[in-house]
Amino acid sequence: METRNSIRPPGPIVIDIENITKDYVMGEEIVRALRGVSLKIHRNEYLAIMGPSGSGKSTLMNMLGCLDTPTSGRYEFNGKNVADMDDDELAAIRNREIGFVFQTFNLLPRSTSLRNVELPLIYAGIDPATREERATQTLVEVGLGDRIHHKPNELSGGQRQRVAIARALVNKPSIILADEPTGNLDSKTGEEIMALLEDLYQRGNTIILVTHERDIAVHARRTVHLRDGLIESDEATMPQFEPAMVDYGH
Amino acid sequence: MKRFLYELTESWKIAAAQMRSNLTRSTLTALGVIIGIVAVTLMGTAIGGIQVGFDKSMAVFGDDVLYVGQWPWRKVDDWWNYRDRRKLKTEYAEPLNRMIQKTANSNLSIAIPTSSVFRSVKFEDSEVNNVLIRGTVSDYIITSTFDFKEGRFFNELESRGGANVCVIGYDVADALFPSETPIGKAVQINGQPFRVVGVISRQGSFLGLFSLDSIVVMPLPAFQKYFTAKSEAEILVKVKDKSKMAEAKDELVGLMRRVRGLPPEKKDDFSINEQQALKSTLDPIKNTIAMAGLFITGLSLFVGAIGIMNITFVSVKERTKEIGTRKALGARRRTILLQFLIESTALCMLGGLIGLLFAYGMCFLIGVAAPSFPIKFSLGLVITSMVVSIMTGLFSGFAPAWSASRLDPVTALRYE
User: Fold this and answer.
1) B315 and B365: one domain?
2) Least C-beta-crowded within 10 Å: which of A135, B147, B173, B354?
3) Is B275 helix (H, G, I), strand (E, B) or coil?
4) Contacting residues of B for A88, CB less than 8 Å apart
5) Residue B289 per-residue DSSP state
6) Cβ–Cβ of B7/A122 closer than 8 Å?
7) B285 and B168, same structural domain?
8) pTM for this structure?
9) Best residue in B6, B329, B337 to probe A by mutation, most A CBs within 10 Å?
10) Which of A67, A88, A171 sits opposite B333 (nearest CB)?
11) Domain ranges (residues) in chain A
């Protein structure tokens, strides 16, 4: 378990947000979901975003995932200004730079694992042969080499989430954005999924975990706490971490 | 471009999977389009059939013949102005032909006198009523479009001599001589015997209104001997070049005025008719019927289209979360729009195809059961039906597909 708790050296900045706000109009009321959040996330980071419901956690995740644009503030993704991109440009960023893992897996129910994993590659315009090869390879990587032609209803919850993770990985995104990835799994399966994420982190992926469970958040190396639309704390989370174990070798 | 192609193939696959997994729903929805396409296609075949019958009826008049008569071939509001016109005479043919001969570069070739009445025709105990009896000359055959089932037309000698010979139409022959050949037999008209020399092959009916086969044609002198009362004369003039109908008509008007001795200040007291003029009178009626028919049957297709639109809206609603997921994975607006457009179009195409098969089967059955019913199935109709189906799919799918493509990914993902 030596590598399990090791921190990989942070790379260049992937996400740079500064003083982001987001207002929603709910009926006649304006809800200020984010009130000025600044955050820098580097490549090779494993970050958890925590906070109770209503803290702005989901809104921040939607911003980071380029599903939504901020009301004000600056957002740079790999140096590109995302804040004023249009729908199609955002779609392209989501396709190439972000891998989503959802609490409810969000697999297409009538498609096989392979077809589910191929989906982002179709939207990226990859040819069918390469698509199948890469999707298969990614499924093997997440340990589903023998479930390629199964449909979601023929898979267990853990296996479904693995398919979803393979789908998030297949386009080699800059970040993996996991929203309560264990929320619909029992704790044993949840741990398996967290182990897989740990493994992906160790292999050089950048992971952003959104959760309200402390047990899950502890897997990350850095935790950002949100409360009432503001960052309450932003610190390293390494309860088992001992400085001697940090591996700066890479 | 390549990406668009992949998205297109993907959309077709999704559409096929979607139809398979919602089989009942898809079938019921497609049924609306099927009924619509069957209705429109059958109406199309009926219109095609009417067109064919119309052209066939028109062909009887020949497109290179002018008809000089007392009445014009159209509806007249001031019938009293025509009623009192001087009677037309068969004798006009002679001076007309003389003048045509003398005119250099005449557009006309020959004038044929005809005179007609309606009489009964008898043979032994059989009788046919209301047969058109027409007296004319042997050159009449030049202006006619008919063939002979048996025998021949009367010759010039018989024509000039006014022999009691005649040529009978198919219906007359059929009624009077069900089991023997009429050639050489004598039919009785007005108590006079006329020897049959020929039988005209079947001409059908004019627009289904009256039979063109209930006719007896005989030499003019013989006709004039027995049937002068209430007979109506008409002079047929064959035109040399049918591309110069207008000039030919003008020339004929001039000749007729000379024959009639009309001073310049008097109006024409005869009418010159032609197939084209009749056609242009009847065409708008035919087209109105066609348009009305297509419009009414088109309504059923419209109802089918609304069904498709409805089901596509339902599909979009049901799959809101899927749309959100697809958007999160990088689907652009265009991708989503395309996906749902193709779904509705695929459903309509399938409906159109099945509808077309049904329509073809029904046409076949109608053709077998009622051969005289005007119906015509054509490749053009197949292509039109398919294009209409595709257009219906695009039309009915657009609104739901558009709303799907505009969905906000965050809202869509959160939708349960």
Assistant:
1) yes
2) B147
3) helix
4) 332-334
5) H
6) yes
7) no
8) 0.75
9) B329
10) A88
11) 44-68+94-238
Question: Does B367 have pLDDT greater than 90?
Answer: no
- pLDDT of res. A239: 56
Is B20 in the same domain as B141?
no
From first to last of the 250 residues of chain A, give the pLDDT tens digit: 444 567 778 789 999 999 999 998 888 889 899 999 999 999 999 999 999 888 999 899 999 999 998 999 999 999 889 887 888 899 999 999 999 999 999 999 889 999 999 999 999 999 999 999 999 999 999 999 999 999 999 999 999 999 999 999 999 999 999 999 999 999 999 999 999 999 999 999 999 999 988 889 999 999 999 999 999 999 887 655 444 444 544 4
pLDDT tens digit string along B284-308?
888 898 899 989 999 999 999 999 9
Q: How many CB pairs under 8 A join A and B?
A: 70
> Chain A residue with minimal CA distance to B333?
A88
* Owning domain of residue B362: 2-57+281-414
Give me the residue from A87, A124, A126 closest to B333, CB to CB. A87
- Are A120 and A131 in contact by the 8 Å Cβ rule? The answer is no
Query: Which residue among B215, B239, B263 closes a domain?
Result: B239
Q: What angle do CA A216, A222, A227 make, to 5 degrees?
A: 80
Alpha carbons within 13 angstroms on the beta-carbon side of residue A90 total 23
- Hey, are the CB atoms on A67 and B410 less than 8 Å from each other? yes
Q: How many domains does chain B have?
A: 2
Average pLDDT over residues B55-77: 83
Three-class DSSP category at B200: strand
Torsion sign across C-alpha atoms A21, A22, A23, A26: negative
Q: Maximum distance among all alpha carbons in chain B? A: 102
Chain A CB within 8 Å of residue B333 CB: yes
Q: Does B411 touch chain A (CB under 8 A)?
A: no
Which stretch of A49-63, B2-16, B173-187, B372-386 has the lowest confidence by average pLDDT? Answer: B372-386
State the smallest CA–CA distance between residue B396 and chain A in angstroms.
Answer: 25
Is B202 contained in some domain? yes
Alpha carbons within 13 A on the beta-carbon side of B327: 30
Residues B228 and B301 in one domain: no
The answer to whether residue B319 neighbours chain A at the CB level (below 8 Å) is no
Q: CB–CB of A94 and B322 under 8 A?
A: no
Q: What are the chain B neighbours of A122 within 8 Å (beta carbons)?
A: 6-7, 10
Q: Show Cβ contacts of residue B349 under 8 Å, excluding neighbours closer than 6 positions.
A: B386, B389, B390, B393
Interface check for B365 against chain A (CB to CB < 8 A): the answer is no
Question: Residue B277: CB partners within 8 Å, gap ≥ 6?
Answer: B73, B74
Task: Judge: B330–A126 Cβ closer than 8 Å, yes or no.
Answer: no
A197 contacts A209 by C-beta, under 8 angstroms? yes
- Is B248 inside any structural domain? no
Which residues of chain A have a Cβ shorter than 8 Å from any chain B Cβ? 62, 65, 67-68, 87-88, 91-92, 94-96, 100, 102, 106, 108, 110-111, 119-120, 122-128, 167, 171
Using the predicted structure, report yes or no on whether residue B359 has a pLDDT greater than 70.
Answer: yes
Give the pLDDT of residue A5.
Answer: 60
pLDDT band per the 50, 70, 90 thresholds, residue B84:
confident
- Domain membership flag for residue B245: no
Residue partners of B178: CB distance under 8 A and separation at least 6:
none
Residues 6+ apart with CB under 8 A from B86: B260, B269
Q: Would the pLDDT of B407 be above 80?
A: yes
pLDDT of res. A7: 77
